[in-house]
Amino acid sequence: MKYKIAFKKSVSKDLKNIGKEQSKRILNKIEKELPLAANKYPELKGRFKGLRKVRVGDYRIVYTVIKDIVLIVRVGHRKEIYGKNR
Length: 86
What we know:
Structural class: alpha+beta
CATH superfamily: RelE-like
Helix content: 25-40%
CATH topology: YaeB-like fold
Strand order of the largest sheet: 1-4-3-2
Mean pLDDT: 92
Radius of gyration: 12 Å
CATH class: Alpha Beta
Strand content: 25-35%
Largest sheet: 4 strands, mixed
Shape: globular
CATH architecture: 2-Layer Sandwich
Number of strands: 4
């Protein structure tokens, strides 16, 4: 199944806070892999239950699958993405 990609508004701010080169890598991963294999990546646990993650170096893409749409929720460094203020 091929999924459509949608972004939360906050993702653009997340990408601006990351370097240009890393942002390109992250967007490339989102465009090339997520539409085809969204359900192959691991689900998160605890308060993030229902969300999934993709690794891109030290960065994480946090998303959820709703019917035929992959909704990108957050993008950030692995040490900050799961923080209490998220």
